[in-house]
Design brief:
By secondary structure, this protein is α/β, with parallel strands linked by helices. The chain has one domain: Spore Coat Polysaccharide Biosynthesis Protein SpsA, Chain A (Alpha-Beta Complex), CATH 3.90.550. The chain contains eleven helices and eight strands. It has an eight-stranded mixed beta sheet, with helices on both faces.
C-alpha cells in the first residue's frame, strides 16, 4: 500500500453517482492509484452507497468509515490517514482528466504547495449551469491574488499544513471548505487545469438565485465562523 496519498470521500445516499467517481479513479494514470487508501465516510446512507463502495473495493483500496456532515466525514478520514498528502473529493463528481491526480501531486512536490484544486465543469448541464460554474472557476483563479478559495469537490492538501490549520470546522453547516482554504498562504495555493465533472442537482433543488445568494453571502462573511454554524443553513446540507 502506498503511503504517499490518501483519498477521503464524504457521502450520503450516493449510490447512483458514486460509481462514476470510482471509475474515474480507476482511469487515473497515477501509478499507485489501486494501492492508495480511499476512505468513504458514510453519513448513515439509506440506499446502496456502502454496498457500491464495497463492490469497488475489489479494484480499489476502499475502507468505509463513519461520516456525518461533510466536514466531519473529511476529518474522520484525515485522522485515519498516515500519508503525506490528503485528497478530499465529493462523492458526486467525476475526475475529468486521467492525469489529474498525478499532475496535482507533481505540482505539490515541485512547488512546495499546501493546497491544490481544479476547475469545475458541468458537461450535462445547460448554459446557466456553465455560467455558474464558470464564475466559480474565475473566482478560484483570482483568489490566488488575495485569499485562496477552493471547494470540497477537489482539495489536495499537504497533510502537515492541514493538521496545522486544524482541519475542517465540524460545526459548520456549509462552506467549511471555503473557511479552510482561505487560511492557506496564497503563495502556496494553485489551481490546475483538467477539472472535475459535477452535476447541476444543487441548482435544481435549491434554485439558481438561492445558490447565488449563498455564494455572495459566503464571500462577504469571510472568516466569521459563527455565521456558517447557524441552524438556518442546515437546508444547504439537506438539499445537497
Amino acid at each position: 500500500m502506498s503511503n504517499e496519498l490518501t483519498v477521503v470521500i464524504p457521502a450520503r445516499n450516493e449510490e447512483k453517482l458514486l460509481p462514476r467517481l470510482f471509475l474515474s479513479l480507476l482511469r487515473q494514470d497515477y501509478r499507485h492509484i489501486r494501492d492508495t487508501k480511499i476512505y468513504l465516510a458514510d453519513a448513515d446512507s439509506t440506499d446502496r452507497t456502502v454496498e457500491v463502495a464495497r463492490n469497488f473495493s475489489r479494484e480499489l483500496n476502499i475502507c468505509v468509515i463513519e461520516g456525518g456532515l461533510p466536514s466531519v466525514g473529511r476529518n474522520n478520514g484525515a485522522r485515519c490517514a498516515d500519508s503525506r498528502y490528503l485528497l478530499f473529493l465529493d462523492a458526486d463528481i467525476e475526475l475529468g482528466d486521467c492525469t489529474l491526480i498525478r499532475r496535482t501531486l507533481e505540482a505539490m512536490k515541485k512547488q512546495s504547495l499546501h493546497l491544490v484544486t481544479t476547475d469545475i465543469l458541468c458537461p450535462g448541464g445547460g448554459i446557466l449551469d456553465g455560467l455558474m460554474y464558470g464564475c466559480n472557476n474565475a473566482v478560484q483563479r483570482l483568489s490566488r491574488y488575495h485569499r485562496p478559495f477552493a471547494t470540497g469537490m477537489f482539495m489536495l492538501f499537504d497533510r502537515e499544513r492541514f493538521d496545522a490549520l486544524g482541519g475542517f470546522d465540524e460545526l459548520a453547516l456549509y462552506a467549511e471548505d471555503y473557511q479552510l482554504s482561505r487560511l492557506v498562504d496564497r503563495r502556496r495555493f494553485k489551481v490546475v487545469r483538467g477539472g472535475v465533472h459535477s452535476t447541476n442537482r444543487r441548482f435544481q433543488k435549491m434554485g439558481y438565485w438561492k445558490v447565488v445568494r449563498f455564494f455572495v453571502r459566503t464571500a462577504f462573511r469571510g472568516g466569521r465562523a459563527g455565521y456558517y454554524r447557524d441552524p438556518m443553513h442546515r437546508a444547504y446540507w439537506e438539499m445537497s
